[in-house]
Amino acid sequence: MSETQSLSRIDADLLNALMEKVSEFGSTGDGGIDRPALTDAHRDARDWFRSELEARGYTVLVDAIGNLFGRIDLAGPEAPLVMIGSHLDSQPRGGRFDGAYGVIAALAAIETFRRDGGTPRCNYVIADWMNEEGARFQPSLLGSSVFAGLIELDWALGRRDREGRSVGEELVRTGYKGTDAAPRPDLYLELHIEGDAKMETAGARIAPFLRHWGALKVRIEVTGEQNHTGPTPMEDRKDAVLGAAYIIAEVRRLADVAEDTLFTSVARVDISPNSPNIVPGKAVLFCELRAPEPAMLDWSEASLRAALPALAAKAATRAEIVSIDRRPAGKFDPRLARLTERVADDFGLPRMQLDTIGGHDAVALNAILPSIVFAVPSVGGVIHRNDEYTSPEDLAAGGDVLTDMVRRIDRAGADLDLALGANA
Hints:
Elements: H1 12-22, H2 40-55, E1 59-62, E2 68-72, E3 81-86, H3 100-115, E4 123-128, H4 142-147, H5 153-157, H6 167-174, E5 187-193, H7 198-202, E6 207-212, E7 214-223, E8 227-228, H8 240-257, E9 263-272, E10 278-279, E11 282-291, H9 294-313, E12 318-327, E13 330-331, H10 334-347, E14 354-356, H11 361-365, E15 371-376, H12 392-411, H13 416-419
Parallel strand pairs: 3-4, 3-5, 5-15, 6-14
Antiparallel strand pairs: 1-2, 2-4, 6-13, 6-15, 7-11, 7-12, 8-10, 9-11
């Protein structure tokens, strides 16, 4: 039988049924999801997913940072361990496919593989990473970064949301402050929707990410002087928001004048005391600088630092960078990228190669083991919004590729060079 004839296709009915169910948790009623990390909706989604794993015979593990794992040993204790996953937390009023699709597809793919029979040579674990989005607690990729040893556990547990609640406190409240040792896989696969319209424009249905961009998550405090918005003379005002506005414009200007690719944003500003009748005394800016090359990130950081004093002074305020979370740029495992492409070709699915500008948990894991993210299209390139949508046909196509990658990797005993062989 030829490789094409023996392709493994995902159980699309199972995939769709599980996607419909997980989309109920935190539903906003308009197609979207509001399920930030460690909220009640996030806890409920994880509780449901945990029950699905247990009902199918998986051993459920929860580590100290709240990563949820479903492990199933199919090939004995010494067999290689393949990990597949993503995350169930969402952005506020975000979409229902971002993250959740990767977790649900992982379960459907492994269940399809088990159903198809044969003698497995690998064991499997599904990962639901804690706080991938970084919406409620910063930085993003928190759980996977602790797993990969990129940040310290105690530091991560101490991160606080706007109301002052810590990660550690909320893990306890939601029942996800675990004590299990995290499984240590030999490789990691992640399936996601695209965060752009490039695939749709090109007519592609599968795209491995070859590179992940680097990012600087910069927190800037602008300090002015609280006063009344009525009688305080204009020339005496030290308006922290005005100082912040000058800095926000500069962050955008850096992207406009960059000699190479640079994406920038200031998507959150915390204002104190945030009253319409008070000249703000403080504004905290959450800036992001993203680029594929370290030199561009170095230039953008240096340029921003140099510009801050004069920009703040224009509003009679002061500004300082109080923290920077750094995510280095890198390349995903090229063997896994080629395997993704080979399987897509065997299915006859048009494909292309992409970089990922947004972060994924595979970025953290890529620092310690072979990892890949591959994408299916999102209609209109929409992501992090209630109308985010990927068709059932494209969801199934991505699932097909994932399932057959599992089959080939298993037959090769997780030897990626062997998996790429003609008879894998």
